[in-house]
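User: Please predict the structure of the protein below. I'd like the answer in structure-token form so I can feed it into my own downstream comparison script.

Assistant: Understood. Taking the following sequence of 64 residues as input:
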Amino acid sequence: MGRKPFTFLAVAFLAVICVIHALRVALGIHILIGSTEIPVWMSIPGALFTGLLAILLWREARRT
């Protein structure tokens, strides 16, 4: 993956977002936007989606 710096950055970015979502769920961190609270459970699909994207992109970059 050394020849594809953008792919590496995309995988790293997606992995960091996945970890942030997982930490939010594990620690129960509440987020308020204005007066609206974003439920913690919404980070579960966010973590799964970004984690899956990171894995699939990493696997695709290794094949070529």
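That's the full token string. The first helix runs from residue 5 to 27.
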